[in-house]
């Protein structure tokens, strides 16, 4: 029996995003009325009216989120992470450790599991739930040894003809001096090359943040999907604002021009599918989100399993070569 990830009202209230405040105030009012109802006061009609108002307010807010607001939802501290999806969607997960060169990077988890009727290799960026765990996992920002661990296990999957599922959720690769000294750029570039030639299906899922090369290091796939409130971008909005306008306070403007939302990416042909989230975001109903994601992953695996290995790599190559259009102009 799968464990249901439950987020309490207290957690929701304490992790409220700025644009969620009207919603949270309504939720607090409803909670207070229910508490008073338990003492014998009949407030059922008032509660029903407030619940209708709450749903209307949630739709008003979440069906018209700006790109910057979606970035904030993607970074929500209660949002499900890689291990949450693995434990809900898969059975018998066996985590594998280490890159056989330097260390085991805990910012990337990887291993073998059973997903519905498939034996698979699964991996992804993992953030922490508190300060101690975030420090251990480098806030989901992988070091070179994380990417080397990932490709080592991908090649193991190829040896045993196992499909690969990659969950992306990182603000970017770890930017420290040690990571650069150990070959951060080379490790990511090596993964891009090697993943492009793996002879097994690769599914990539952006579940939260998809930041720059840190995301691409495990992001070369045959089928790429992004959760509705996740983002995938060449740079963070803050980084873009600092470069373009010398002012990272203009992150909201940068998010608008970067075209980083799931819908923008689908229209640009960078991804293959947008996976819907429950109203209010994945953290408000993890089980529904996970099941929707699992169904999309299953459809993708069925589709990819029908493609001959000899054609798989060619299709993957064409997929990435066709991204972006360029033209020349005579001066």
Write structural notes for this entry.
The protein has 331 residues and is of the alpha/beta class. The protein folds into two domains: 9-64; 71-321, 2-enoyl-CoA Hydratase, Chain A, domain 1. It is built from 15 helices and eight strands. The N and C termini lie far apart (66 Å). The mean pLDDT is 91.
N-to-C SSE series? HHHHHEEEHHEHHEHEEHHHEHH
In percent terms, what proportion of residues is strand?
A: 15-25%
Number of domains: 2
Query: Helix/strand-derived class?
Result: alpha/beta
Name the CATH superfamily classification of the largest domain: 2-enoyl-CoA Hydratase, Chain A, domain 1
* Biggest sheet statistics: 8 strands, mixed
Please state the overall shape, judged from the principal axes of the Cα atoms: globular
The helix content is: 40-55%
CATH class of the largest domain: Alpha Beta
CATH architecture of the largest domain: Alpha-Beta Complex
